[in-house]
Fold this sequence. Notes:
The protein is of the alpha+beta class. It is built from 4 helices and 7 strands. The chain has helices spanning 14-24, 50-59, 82-92, 115-121; strands spanning 2-9, 31-37, 40-47, 63-69, 71-73, 97-102, 108-112. The mean pLDDT is 97.
Amino acid sequence: MYDLTIELDDRPGALAAMGEALGAAGVSVEGGGAWTVDGRGVAHFLFHDGDAATAALEKAGITVTACREVVARRLDQDKPGQLGAITGALATAGVNIEVLYSDHDHRLILVTDDAEAAAAATAPWDR
């Protein structure tokens, strides 16, 4: 799975144009989110095929600034403290979390500065 960092104009319809470009290319969004920062749209979305998503967006004139492999983990939702435990495990391993969100399958998606170390540190949540 891959997280794309996508730049969008902060205007009505920018996110719709992104979704339409992906749909026209047959690329499905698996999770993510979008927000504005300092007057610019910033989006992080999850895809099975990062290259296909990047190509579809760039063909539509939408800027993709990064395509990175993610670590996907499943928290025990019935057990309080799971977020602190998994992020603490990453901190102990010296891994910095750059982006965190949930996907459509209720998994925690982690974009970090070291995917290999993140995968090892969070292995107990690999379900």
